[in-house]
Amino acid sequence: MRPLLMLSLLAGLTCAGPVLADSLNYNQVSLRAEVQQSVNNDTLTVTLFTEDQDNDPAKLANRITTRLNQGLETARKNSKIRVSSGNRYSQPVYDEKRKNILAWRERGEIRLEGTDFAAISSTMGELLGELNLGGMQFSLSPASRSATEDELIKRAIEAFRQRADIATQGLGGNGYRIVQLNLNTQFMTPRPYMQSGRMLAMAADAEMTAPAVEGGEADVTVSADGTIEVQIP
């Protein structure tokens, strides 16, 4: 019985040999290529807000609603920008021991968005004084971002092929085939501009002129990660 068992085991190892050999990937090289382009931001989003406090929450809500409606009505006169309501919330104001509610504080926002920076700046100038500037953020529109990514994908693939040619020549190969290729896009969004508390206080006391706006640039990156199999004679 023992000789039969050993022969059976040896036969199994003999059959497993080619399977293990076939699972090895010979002459494969992992490569990475990356291309980047800076694109002018073409969209501006501005947040304006009003904030107030009262011991009567109903009166407070009506006052905030009136200011927001007036702001929306003024902003909508400019057909070059998109206007929408933003966040709105209220919260109680407690005494020092945080046991009794002394008053209520409420804040409401409206948003202006568009690609015509001059039109948005002009509307901001009309609204500042009645409303405060909460923040400004520049961004790249979906259409511009998609067009940039499409162009960078072509460039990333070409850069990957160039590196594949270099690797093939270095290994003494006469050609290669792409085993796997992954394309990834990355978009660096700019930090929003936030107005300081001191400037907000000044805006509440006096009419504030709209700040000059400059969109700056956003960085769009496309990387090509993949594996090639070099054909060596």
Beta content = 35-45%
Under the CATH scheme, the architecture of the largest domain is: 2-Layer Sandwich
Structural class designation:
alpha+beta
**Count of helix runs:** 5
Q: Write down the secondary-structure element order.
A: HEEHEEHEHEEHE
Largest sheet: 5 strands, antiparallel
Describe the structure.
The protein is α+β, with helices and mostly antiparallel strands and 233 residues long. The chain has two domains: 25-42 and 140-192 and 217-233, Translation Initiation Factor IF3; 44-139, 2-Layer Sandwich (Alpha-Beta Plaits). 39% of the residues lie in helices and 39% in strands. The protein has helices spanning 2-23, 57-75, 117-127, 142-170, 197-205, and strands at residues 28-40, 43-54, 82-94, 101-114, 132-139, 175-188, 193-194, 217-231. The strands form two sheets. A five-stranded antiparallel sheet has the order 3-4-2-5-7. A three-stranded antiparallel sheet has the order 1-8-6. It starts with a helix and ends with a strand. Residues 1-22 and 194-207 have low confidence and may be disordered.
